[in-house]
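# nightly structure sweep
# worker-07 picked up a monomer target from the shared queue
# config: single-sequence mode, recycle default, output format = structure tokens
# input follows
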Amino acid sequence: MLEKVKLKEKIAYGLGDAASCMFWKLFTMYLLFFYTDIIGLPISAIGTMFLVTCLWNTFLDPFIGVMSDRTISRWGKFRPFILWMAIPFGICGVLTFTTPEFGMTGKLIYAYISYTMMMTVYSFINVPYASLLGVISSNPHTRIVFSTFRMTFAFGGSFIVLLLVEPLVAYFSTCGTAGIKVNLLFGWQMASLVFAIAAVVMFYGTFFWTRERVKPINDVKNNFKDDLKDLGHNKPWWILVFAGITALIFNSMRDGSAVYYFKYYVRNTNAFKFWFIDASVSLTTLYFVLGQAANIVGILFVMPLSKLIGKKMTYFTAMILATVFSVMFYFIDRNNIVGIMSFQFLISFCAGMIFPLLWSMYADIADYSELKTGRRATGLIFSSSSMSQKFGWTIGGALTGWLLSYFGFHANTVQTETAETGIRIMMSILPAVGTILSVIVISFYPLSEPTKIEPNLL
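# output follows
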């Protein structure tokens, strides 16, 4: 039976991921392009930068989880971090899309510093935010509802960003110049400022309108070493971490390659123009926005399907279908825009189903770990979700940069046939490898439904 939680709180919880995902989508879909085609940095160097800056930050997440587990305040354990980090999150987001007048080496160093700062702040606000799901309610079905709201708003925030980013960049790039001079660096900076302000407001909505209700069974101070030991022996946790990493590799490679796919293979053309500003929406934007819409549709199927066939089988089925559709994507001709958009919808529909399931499964693992050990480590367990997200995106982002370099990509020039083929593979075959690996890993997951789980599986 679902607990009676007000709609306002469900919306408020969703706002937090809408805020995070606005910048997450900017990073996954446009940051590599921003560094290579706007700033002019070498693509292989950026691939290495993604790996170096994110790897250390990835392993920061568990420590933030432990810190939040031990936080005691009148606002709870996790909500205070949202309050404290909202404004730094917005500031670092703008700095990431700011480019000082340095030489190439200076710009690369600045990229390392600004992106590292952004990812650090992202951890400090997103790990506690994710952990909040584990203490809002102890009811597994209520958690699915909150997780569904979270992912709906996440994709909704992404939808807004992807729809507006190119028009905003175009508008600010020529703002005050009567269209005579184009300053893309200023355009990207101001567009990021708009999204930063929106993100801060949304985070404050999450802080003020959510509550922490679930208290530890034993109100004792956890030993960090024991928490890590328990986590290391938690088989379902390991499986979800690897499933999340492979799913994010699939997502990040498709997202990171899409801008290049349309610009250099499809030879991007404008889809339509806005009537209220002098800017147009490209096929790239239409592709991204359609994907977000399909994600939201996929989320709507999570609750009924998981009730019918279980969380594990729903995840398994969605990833199998994503694999098939991804492989088929390779064979679509560049002029078949309807085919490209149709398969984008199908693949994104499948992807939309898997992430609400992952978040809900992490909450289940936190409960059963507590039953097994007598200690609650919600923050530590949920930090692994953020860790796997970053690790998967790090690998996918680095591979995207390195593979583009390997295939002979050069920014702002006509690409060779080898480079074009490589970009097509990165949009289809290679992401399908990630989905296949995720299917293999999730097949070993033992906690199909919370009511059927035996504690000795942990």
